[in-house]
Amino acid sequence: MRRVLCTLDVMSGVRILMVTHDDQEAELIEVALAQAARPWQLARCTDSRALLPGLLSRHTLPPHLVLLEQNMPFLDGYDVLGQLRAQSALVDLPVVLLSNSSHESDLARAFSLGADEYLVKEQSFPALMGQLTACLLRWEARLGDSERGAGSVA
Question: Which pLDDT tens digit goes with each residue over 58-94?
Fold first, then answer.
């Protein structure tokens, strides 16, 4: 997998930005995308501190969806989510928070900060693959509906 810092330059398909420092998790997500055989374009941000400047840059295409790991060094997913929602240009960007925690307080915190979806990661590879694929298919449908004017992304 090509390591990138928040660069999306592909015009076709749903552009997905994965924010994770975990190479194994990134590979799992990449495999899920490949197995789904959909026109999804994936970029990766490995440093949560670089996410906001990268998204606000006029030199890259914005993603349609952000997959944001909750457990990140420097800035965790909650901090990043708060920063994203504080920017008027990014307030409507769909964000799926990926976490190992199923505690109610973590879910409540994620949604209070503006997460569009909270995904508790499965521990087995097949279950995680199915979970990620289902999540991405849901968002592909929502994004397609909003582009056709049939509804809202959020």
Answer: 777 788 889 999 998 889 999 999 999 999 888 888 8
Q: Which of 103, 100, 104, 43 is nearest to 77 (CA)?
A: 100
Structure token digits, residue 150: 């049939």
What count of other Cβ atoms lies within 10 Å of the Cβ of residue 91? 11
Count other Cβ atoms within 10 Å, centred on residue 70: 23
Backbone angles phi, psi at 122, to 5 degrees: -70, 155
**CA pair distance 78, 134, nearest whole angstrom:** 23
14-146: in CATH 3.40.50.2300 = yes
How do the domains of the chain map onto residue ranges? 14-146
Give SS3 for 62.
coil
Structure token digits, residue 105 = 């307080």
Indicate the pTM of the whole model: 0.78
Burial of 36 (0-12, 13-18, 19+ CB in 10 A): middle
